[in-house]
Amino acid sequence: MKVTSFLRFAGFGIKTILFRKKDPILGTVIVTDRCNLKCRHCSVNNITAVMHPYAQIMGEMKTLYDMGVRILFFCGGETFLWRDGEKTIRDLVREAKQMGFLIVNVVTNGTFPIDLPEADLILLSLDGDRERHNAVRGDTYDTIMENIKNATSDNICFYMAINQINKDAVADVCRLARDTANVRAVSFNFHTPYPDTRELALSKEEKRECCEVIKQMMKEKVPVFNLKSAFPYLIENRFPTPCHQCVVIENGKISVCGRCIDVPGLCEECGYFFVAEYTLLFKGNPKIICEMLRTYLKYI
User: Fold this and answer.
1) Is there a cis peptide before residue 27, judged by omega within 30 degrees of 0?
2) Is 149 within 8 Å of 181 (Cβ atoms)?
3) 266 touches 194 (CB < 8 A)
4) Which of 31, 111, 210, 296 could pair covalently with 82 via S-S, beta carbons 3.0-4.6 A apart?
5) Among candidates 271, 272, 282, which has minimal Cα distance to 244?
6) What distance in Å separates the CA atoms of residue 271 and residue 298, rounded to the nearest whole number?
7) 3-state class of 69 per DSSP?
8) Helix H segments across the chain?
9) What would the mean pLDDT of 27-56 be, rounded to a whole number?
10) What is the mean pLDDT of residues 268-285?
């Protein structure tokens, strides 16, 4: 991370904590909900299957920038499917950088060739070893691993949603992140139980067991892009929600924290690690502050 970016984020954090501000710093643009997969745990794909136009997305990026957002994510659906004429997700990343966003990340399922060195991180969904990943996402594991091998940059971060199908594969994904070229780290979430996927949710004890595995992997020097200080809050779902410092924009609609905020009762069962980490950070939790500084400086 550049020194200027670090100072910008540090200043934002200090003002947010001291003055209890609710201004956003992290924003997500949903470029499409079209997806080539039908994953077992997903409730937000192919609802409209619309590719949002380039001009609209540029306007949404400008809206987020004017709100003070400086960490930008592009999400889907599947982001690598997005097209508008000759424009692709790579053009959007370049435009975001030119606009002034300090960190620009892209979320993908990894089933398309990965040629995106301009992104700070490519969060690539890998949901277990071959057997369990394929049980969640269809027969895609080998394709994804081949695309990682042929990627043009080492900016990939595995992105695993832990659920009832893959809960015993956490260590496998950790070690794969450590041992695979072009992969910088691994980041976890617990499954957030939308009404149609509730059977995949973990119990508190299962979450606790998973966190113990992740902590052990950290001891083994696996590059984990999460904060262990947040684990007790995630296990008990006792972190404050929603996260006002994060916003999502989709087809012109801005949601605080995420799209799931519109589902009654879902915030109380949130499994997103970053939500716990950011809300605790901006509440001034000293352990979270120190750990986040070390983690972000190391992996971004």
Assistant:
1) no
2) yes
3) yes
4) 31
5) 282
6) 24
7) coil
8) 3-19, 54-67, 89-99, 130-137, 141-149, 170-179, 204-219, 231-236, 273-282, 286-299
9) 94
10) 95
Q: Please, which residues have CB within 8 angstroms of residue 86's CB and are 6 or more apart in sequence?
A: none
Which domains are assigned to the chain? 25-279 (3.20.20.70)
Cα–Cα distance for residue pair 134/117, rounded to 1 Å: 27
| Tokens linked to 89 | 């997700």
What is the pLDDT at residue 1? 67
- For residues 14 and 6, give the distance between their C-alpha atoms in angstroms, rounded to a whole number: 12
The token pair at 230 is 């947040």
Give residue 299's identity as a one-letter amino acid code: Y
Q: Is the pLDDT of residue 246 over 80?
A: yes
Average pLDDT over residues 156-172: 98
- The answer on pLDDT for 99 being more than 80 is yes
Pairing relation of β-strands 26-30 and 71-75? parallel
pLDDT for the residue numbered 47: 84
Contact 136, 40 (CB under 8 A): yes
